[in-house]
Design a protein that fits this description.
single chain, seven-stranded antiparallel sheet, about 120 residues
């Protein structure tokens, strides 16, 4: 019985995730990413796997568990860089750090992505 309930919940989660993904229409670049946190939210954030999308107007991260959506207007992005640590979390390879300014407030988020240079090129 638990297997059936688990399979049903998983199918429902995948369906909701697909619907969420499709709302963005045409995407310039997308790929699996691991979210390392947003600077303004502090160090106690949980990492999460999801999909990073780049549309004509924004950078979007759709996290699977816990369900989270982060949206950054492309016009607000000020720069990108790479690092191996962010908010006290360390990775054995480079992370993509995206910095932006929205309404006069600076912020940053870090992602572990497969082709970091493609992301940096598209975001600059």
């Amino acid at each position: 019985m638990l297997v059936i309930v688990g399979a049903f919940r998983l199918r429902r989660m995948r369906s909701a995730y697909k619907e969420q993904f499709e709302q963005f229409g045409e995407v310039e670049l997308s790929g699996q990413a691991n979210f390392f946190g947003q600077a303004s939210s502090g160090k106690n954030q949980v990492r999460g796997i999801g999909t990073l999308l780049l549309t004509q107007t924004e950078l979007v991260f759709l996290q699977l568990v816990p369900v989270r959506e982060a949206r950054i207007p492309r016009s607000a992005i000020t720069t990108t860089r790479t690092t191996r640590h962010f908010l006290g979390k360390t990775q054995g390879r480079d992370l993509l750090v995206v910095m932006w300014n929205a309404n006069g407030i600076d912020d940053a988020a870090a992602f572990d992505v497969a082709d970091i240079e493609s992301w940096r090129t598209k975001l600059s």
